[in-house]
Specification:
Structural class of chain A: alpha/beta
Largest sheet of chain B: 8 strands, mixed
Number of strands of chain B: 15
Shape of chain B: globular
Order of helices and strands of chain A: EHHEEHEHHEHHHHHH
Radius of gyration of chain A: 19 Å
Helix content of chain B: 25-40%
CATH architecture of the largest domain in chain A: 3-Layer(aba) Sandwich
Distance between the termini of chain B: 37 Å
Strand content of chain A: 5-15%
Helix content of chain A: 25-40%
Shape of chain A: globular
Number of helices of chain B: 13
Distance between the termini of chain A: 53 Å
Order of helices and strands of chain B: EHEEEEHEEHHEHEEHEHHHHEEEEHHH
Strand order of the largest sheet of chain A: 2-1-3-4-5
Oligomer: heterodimer
Number of domains of chain B: 2
Number of domains of chain A: 2
Strand order of the largest sheet of chain B: 3-2-7-8-9-10-1-11
Largest sheet of chain A: 5 strands, parallel
CATH class of the largest domain in chain A: Alpha Beta
CATH superfamily of the largest domain in chain A: NADH:ubiquinone oxidoreductase-like, 20kDa subunit
CATH topology of the largest domain in chain A: Rossmann fold
Number of helices of chain A: 11
Radius of gyration of chain B: 21 Å
Bound molecules: iron/sulfur cluster
């Protein structure tokens, strides 16, 4: 039987999610056995042409070239999976949406006229059809392995839609909000990380983006009542998922 | 109201340690309250010294704080974030392989939680399809109950008819007394409990000691701040299906599922299949689920309960209403956990009262 082929792509991103795949040390040999890796610049210089049975795409669409590239990737891919906050919700770079892009470019680059950027940073799903999404910054190793084994075995992947709180309680972590220990976005954030941050006594900062059908703004009165100021709340909500579908993308204007 | 059981015995604080030791020696995994990360949680203990020592809990809607007490009370801290359900109905459990759970012993089960275990018995233990995994844990569990002499501010067991005194469903029951010497009145509820009691260093309670404990429990019932409206809740919930209150609640509710996770009777699960990468191994696991999860009502074609209002309505209607139709009891035992551990501070007693108020003639 022919091994399914895998490609791992990078758009505007930090490589952290791809690294999660390399981080699967115990399973890496099994993965290499189970699939033929045809494109994965982070891991191998070998670069084979498509089509690809499965493509994992990291990164947001930030440039005209990427908008073009993602269409080509889509055409060459059987199953396309967007991985990480950038690919699913814009990433931190989406904080420039609504802000003054030219001003940023002038500050950062010696020759800003050489930069070709799109006006807005957007997630992969804003450009092409995406089959599955893995959320988080970075994605969770077990979630990635779960997705790959489901795809390899012809199963529908079991992807979470509910909130981090459910995982928090199941893990036996005492609620930071209720104990007054930290502001936490867990109630409106998508599960999947296993309540990683609360387990280390840190409030969830929402890296997995809104839970399905959650209203992120519903957390605002909850945090206000616990004495958190509006500026702090705004900063907390302006993390790496501001370009998630359904969220009013807020720019990094005043207090960035 | 006379709660006190015939001729209770009395053990001191060392007697509690002795009890834990004895249950462990009998081959049981002993679970009890322990202080951890700012709350009283339930966990395996290896000695009675791990039990709370002079810790109290102050609770309110969306609020829980521990404080040091002036005494060395062990059991005065209601509505912690966990319940005994996680030991009889584990968070995640493999269901396609045999298992041999060790016999358990629960120390410090409150009256509301005794009622919750009995509610779960109705869910999992009843014919014609008892859940054998549940039964294997539950039937062999040795239960040491404790009366609630100091209910928390979020408790409403008196109006739920489950407390604050234990009325059955235990092997042993303790009433903790801190004034006039730290000690526990103990009575047995089963033959097995009697056998364990006989092995403890103890004395007989005086008549005045038993009467004083009764008074304390009566006082506890009367001091309870919260209650469910005194009406046929099942009928109220059925009539309230189209109430505007549900949307009003949904404006505050985060759909975070905390209420269902902490509720000692919420029992819903989903099943997941896992395989390894090569497809050579497959396992089937069952894990806790919640009616607040968007996937909970996912059927062919999509999610049925898309709005938060419909999910909260489902939850509350099941707890207080349709549970009666399904299992012949209420699904709410009045423990108050869902009130304390809701980040938004939504209070099931206040919402029930609001629904009842809507019906009053204006
Ligand atoms: S700590 Fe955060 S994620 Fe955990 S239950 Fe509380 S609000 Fe939810
Ligand atoms: S707890 Fe929140 S911020 Fe932390 S990893 Fe999980 S989703 Fe991301
Ligand atoms: S509904 Fe709330 S008060 Fe009632 S048993 Fe469940 S957690 Fe306790
Ligand atoms: S009632 Fe409270 S705990 Fe329950 S889902 Fe709504 S916000 Fe979460």
């Amino acid at each position: 039987m022919r091994r399914p082929s895998l490609a791992v792509w990078k758009l505007t991103s930090c490589d952290g999610c791809q690294l999660t795949l390399l981080d699967c040390e115990d399973e890496l040999l099994d993965i290499a056995d189970a699939v033929e890796i045809r494109h994965f610049p982070e891991a191998t210089r070998r670069d084979l042409p498509g089509p690809f049975d499965v493509s994992l795409v990291e990164g947001s669409i930030s440039t005209p070239a990427e908008a073009e590239r993602i269409r080509r990737i889509r055409e060459e891919s059987g199953v396309l999976v967007a991985i990480g906050a950038c690919a699913t919700a814009g990433g931190y770079q989406a904080l420039r949406n609504g802000a003054d892009l030219e001003a940023f470019q002038r500050i950062v680059y010696p020759r800003p006229e050489a930069i070709r950027s799109l006006d807005r940073v957007s997630p992969v799903a804003a450009h092409v059809e995406v089959d599955y999404e893995l959320h988080g910054c970075p994605i969770d190793r077990r979630a990635l392995l779960g997705l790959l084994s489901a795809l390899l075995n012809g199963r529908r992947p079991d992807l979470p839609a509910g909130s981090v709180c459910a995982e928090c309680k199941q893990r036996g972590v005492n609620c930071l909000l209720v104990l007054g220990r930290a502001p936490c976005l867990g109630p409106v954030t998508r599960a999947g990380c296993g309540a990683l941050c609360p387990a280390y006594d840190r409030g969830c900062y929402g890296c997995a983006g809104p839970a399905e059908s959650a209203r992120p703004e519903a957390i605002v009165p909850v945090l206000r009542r616990r004495g958190h100021g509006d500026a702090a709340i705004r900063r907390l909500l302006r993390g790496c998922t501001t370009a998630a579908p359904g969220r009013d993308s807020e720019g990094a204007d005043d207090d960035a | 109201m006379r709660t006190h059981r015939p001729a209770p015995a009395v053990i001191d604080r060392n007697g509690l340690d002795q009890l834990v030791k004895l249950l462990i020696a009998d081959g049981r995994t002993v679970i009890g309250p322990v202080e951890r990360d700012g709350a009283i949680v339930l966990d395996e203990i290896e000695s009675g010294a791990e039990l709370p020592d002079g810790v109290g809990a102050e609770t309110g809607p969306g609020r829980y704080r521990l404080h040091r007490r002036a005494d060395r009370a062990v059991f005065n801290h209601a509505a912690g974030p966990q319940s005994w359900k996680r030991f009889v109905h584990p968070v995640r459990q493999r269901v396609d392989a045999p298992e041999e759970p060790r016999p358990l012993a629960f120390i410090g089960v409150r009256p509301c939680d005794l009622a919750a275990l009995s509610v779960l018995d109705g869910v999992f233990g009843a014919a014609p399809h008892p859940d054998r995994r549940y039964q294997a844990r539950r039937d062999r569990a040795f239960v040491v109950a404790v009366d609630c002499v100091e209910p928390g501010a979020t408790c409403f067991c008196a109006s739920a008819g489950t407390g604050p005194a234990a009325t059955g469903g235990y092997d042993l029951v303790l009433t903790e007394r801190v004034e006039g010497g730290h000690r526990f009145l103990v009575s047995a509820g089963t033959v097995e409990g009697e056998e364990v009691l006989e092995r403890l260093t103890r004395r007989n309670a005086t008549r005045e000691e038993a009467a004083e404990a009764d008074r304390a429990l009566r006082g506890a019932a009367e001091s309870m701040e919260r209650s469910l409206p005194a009406t046929d809740l099942r009928a109220l919930l059925a009539r309230s299906r189209r109430s505007e209150r549900w949307q009003e609640i949904a404006d505050r509710c985060l759909a975070c599922a905390n209420c269902t996770m902490v509720c000692p009777t919420c029992f819903c699960t989903t099943v997941e299949d896992v395989t390894d990468l090569r497809g050579g191994r497959a396992e089937r696991w069952r894990r806790w689920d919640s009616c607040f999860d968007p996937d909970f009502s996912y059927t062919a074609g999509g999610t049925v309960r898309t709005s938060v209002a419909s999910r909260y309505r489902q939850w509350m209607s099941h707890k207080l209403g349709t549970w009666h139709d399904q299992f012949g009891t209420s699904g709410c035992v009045g423990c108050g956990r869902c009130i304390a551990w809701c980040p938004a501070g939504i209070d099931i007693t206040a919402e029930a009262a609001a629904l009842a108020r809507e019906e009053e003639p204006r």
